Each structure stands twice: as structure tokens, then as C-alpha cells.
Amino acid sequence: MSAEYREFMGKIYQGEYLEVVVTTIRCVFPNISPQDLDECISEVYMTAMVNGTLDKHPNIHGWLNNTSKNMAMRLRKQMGNQNKRRAPDFTEAFNVADSESTNPVEMVEQSEQDAETSAFLEDNLKVGEFTLYTLKFIDELPNTEISEITGIKKHTVDVQITRLKEKIKKLKNL
């Protein structure tokens, strides 16, 4: 491998690392351990290095995104997860965090319901929609911060969240 290609891969690693991590987590969530995540990410970049021609690819970002999805789905299959899940019983899909309860049994039940809801939505939303769902309703970030993270205008984030809520309501009625 040439020094130029190694330098190119270093730049790709720095520039695309976070997106590869997010894609991997979305595909395997909520069952991925930090070790499995590291292994998946390493596999993506090792594949890119072995490929040796990524610098000539017309869509490097897309290649990395698809490769990370494939690696994550392979891991998910190894973990024995189902590819499709039934609709969970959830009262309000976008009010995910309601952990004000001090009863440990209720907290565990809420956590299991949250994981089931997230897994169902992951299977039924587009990648971008699920990312938006995660940022807004799991991470509980304000729209301005989501706008900064994603590089999307705040108004567009507002509109997308409104549409996402409507889509989740429709999915809830399945």
C-alpha cells in the first residue's frame, strides 16, 4: 500500500468515522457492545484498506455507509436478532424517556419497552428518519443542536420532526 493511499485512508477515517459509528449503531442497536462496535468499525476500514481503490470510487461516503451497514447486519445476524419485529405496545412512541418512576420494576419494564420501540422503529423508518428519532427522542436534543450536528437548516429539522411524529403515529396503528 502506497504512502499516498495510507494518507488518503487517514483522512477518510477522520472525516467519516462518526458516520460509520452512527450507521453501525443504528443497524445493531440496542444490542451492540463496545467491543462489537469497535470490531465492526475496524472491519469496515480494513475492508477499505484491502480494497485499495477506494480513492477512485465515485461515492466514498456511500461506499463506507453501505459497508458499515453490511458489517453491522452480519453482526446482528450472528447475534441472533430478528430482522422484522411485530409492532410493540407503546402508548406514545415519541415520548420515549419517562424514567421519573423510582420503582425498579417499572424502570426495567420502561427500559425494555423503550428498546422494543426503538428496534421496531429502526426496522420501519428510513435511516435518516431513525437518526432524527434518536437525536430528538432518545438523546433529547433541541432542534437547533440537531441542526448543527446534521448540517440541516433548523426549519427543515422542525418540518422533518413534525413529519416523523405523524409517521410514527401511523406505525403505531399497525
- CA radius of gyration is 18 Å
Shape: globular
Question: Which range best describes the helical content: under 10%, 10-25%, 25-40%, 40-55%, 55-70% or over 70%?
Answer: over 70%
Low-confidence stretches: 81-99
Structure class: mainly alpha
Number of strands: 0
Distance between the termini: 52 Å
Structure description:
With 174 residues, this protein is an all-alpha fold. The chain folds into 2 domains: 3-78, no CATH class; 104-172, Arc Repressor Mutant, subunit A, CATH 1.10.10. It is 71% helix and 0% strand. The chain has 7 helices and no strands. The protein has helices at residues 3-28, 34-51, 60-78, 104-124, 127-138, 143-150, 154-172. Helix 1 packs across helix 3 and helix 5 crosses helix 7 (154-172). The longest helix has 26 residues, at 3-28. The radius of gyration is 18 Å and the shape is globular. The termini are far apart. Residues 81-99 have low confidence and may be disordered.
Write the layout of secondary structure elements.
Elements: H1 3-28, H2 34-51, H3 60-78, H4 104-124, H5 127-138, H6 143-150, H7 154-172
